[in-house]
Write a structure and sequence with these properties.
By secondary structure, this protein is an alpha+beta fold. Helix content is 29%, strand content 28%. The protein folds into two domains: 45-160, Rieske [2Fe-2S] iron-sulphur domain (Rieske Iron-sulfur Protein, 3-layer Sandwich), CATH 2.102.10.10; 171-419, Alpha-Beta Complex (Naphthalene 1,2-dioxygenase Alpha Subunit, Chain A, domain 1), CATH 3.90.380.10. Helix 7 crosses helix 8.
């Protein structure tokens, strides 16, 4: 490993259309430490969705970038994010994963805080000066930066980070396509799905925007669709991959499964046909035929650097993942849907979500097995030190099953580690 440490993270040969990544980046603890310092401490990180805080007093606790965060909507309907740590002695102020509360009481010494983070009371208050909290030093500590785009909330631990809208850049247009599916807004449905994968976190980045593996790794699902009465439409798999800048990337493609936003399949019957026709007609009324077709019939695997994936496919999943060790990550996933979706469409959306995207569905166990097999294969990195990510480099317009989107991630990842900047 020491001899390999002097090698570059990436080998790029533009003339030969070769792009390779050093496999030590998947196993080296020093690289993980550098990622935490130069990426997770400096980039915008996804926190949650506005719909998770539907009314005043709603809260969610979440671990983001190795910090415990309290995400709240206060009585003035302002959304906040605080470090979930009592200013007194450091105990977590809120120990529940979600709920609704007028205030939060630290169980250690009983200090009470409002949903706006302000200190409300403390036992033995007479033992403190009258102006003890004059400067707000005893309030919950807000995260350094908190901003949102289309109800997706992000935090950053670097006060000097560029505005979120600038950071998202070209990716905003793709988030818009997802959010434009509903006039009433999008909503998180149900709770959080959480699981652990014994593999490096960057492998899930690759996998999430990899159209190349689908027909092989998920052959069982494709066969299932073909054998389900009327489930497969005549739509072929075809599409394009895009580098969106700042490490963000997306693949957009057509696929033969049903999309409850308006791509009907025979398995959904006449009721489904009427439902899809009504949704499509409203999309055309709002956006015109071309954009309506794109929303309804195109699939998107959108990656926001460093670790947010929005898969708008047969259902919509929002997923983040964080490294626990060089060979272990923790994954959190949520189902997203139109707020005003009818009961029929919601039923089939969630069926699609659980059938393919959920931890027990067709896709996720396959992907977990593939990533863990890669991690085991990295035991051979001394003799086989490079992973190849060259597919499609010789093309002017990369296909959805080429690897331009992974090269976008790796190039920005290397820039962050080499220069310590995020854009």
């Amino acid at each position: 490993m020491n001899a390999m440490a002097n090698q570059p993270n990436i080998l790029l040969d533009s003339e030969r259309h070769l792009f390779k990544v050093a496999r030590r980046s998947f196993v080296d603890p020093q690289i993980l430490n550098a990622e935490r310092t130069h990426i997770f401490d400096r980039c915008w990180l996804y926190l949650g969705h506005s719909s998770e805080l539907a009314k005043a007093g709603d809260f969610v606790t979440r671990s983001v970038g190795k910090r415990s965060i309290l995400f709240t909507r206060d009585v003035k309907n302002k959304i906040n994010a605080f470090l979930n740590s009592c200013p007194h002695r450091g105990a977590q102020v809120c120990r529940e994963s979600k709920g609704n509360a007028k205030s939060f009481q630290c169980f250690y010494h009983g200090w009470v805080f409002g949903a706006d983070g302000g200190l409300r009371s403390q036992p033995g208050q007479e033992c403190y000066d009258a102006d003890f909290n004059k400067n707000g030093d005893a309030n919950l500590v807000p995260v350094p930066r908190l901003e949102s785009y289309r109800d997706f909330w992000f935090i950053c631990f670097d006060r000097n980070v560029q505005p979120l809208a600038d950071y998202l850049g070209n990716a905003k247009a793709w988030i818009d396509i997802v959010c434009d599916q509903s006039e009433a807004g999008m909503t998180i449905v149900g709770g959080t799905q959480e699981y652990t994968i014994r593999a490096n976190w960057k492998l899930l980045t690759e996998n999430s925007i990899d159209g190349y593996h689908a027909m092989n790794t998920h052959a069982t699902y494709v066969d299932y669709l073909k054998n389900s009465s009327g489930s497969m439409s005549a739509v072929p798999f075809e599409g394009v991959g895009y580098d969106l800048g700042n490490g963000h990337a997306v693949i957009e493609y057509r696929a033969p499964w049903g999309r409850p936003v308006a791509q009907w399949i025979p398995a959904w019957g006449e009721d489904g046909k009427r439902e899809m026709a009504a949704i499509y007609a409203r999309l055309v009324e709002r956006f015109g035929t071309a954009h309506a077709d794109r929303i309804a019939t195109s699939n998107r695997n959108l990656f926001i650097f460093p670790n947010l994936v929005i898969n708008d496919i047969m259902a919509i999943t929002v997923r983040t993942y964080y490294p626990m060790a060089p060979n272990e990550m923790h994954v959190s996933g949520w189902a997203l849907a139109p707020q005003d979706e009818g009961a029929w469409a919601r039923k089939y959306r969630l069926l699609n979500f659980l059938e393919f995207l959920g931890p027990g569905g067709f896709a996720t166990p396959d992907d977990v097995e593939a990533l863990e097999q890669c991690q085991r294969g990295f035991e051979n990195l001394m003799e086989a030190p490079w992973s190849d990510i060259s597919k499609g480099m010789n093309k002017a317009v990369p296909s959805y099953d080429d690897e331009v989107q992974m090269r976008a991630f790796w190039s920005h990842w290397d820039k962050c580690l080499q220069s310590g900047v995020t854009a």
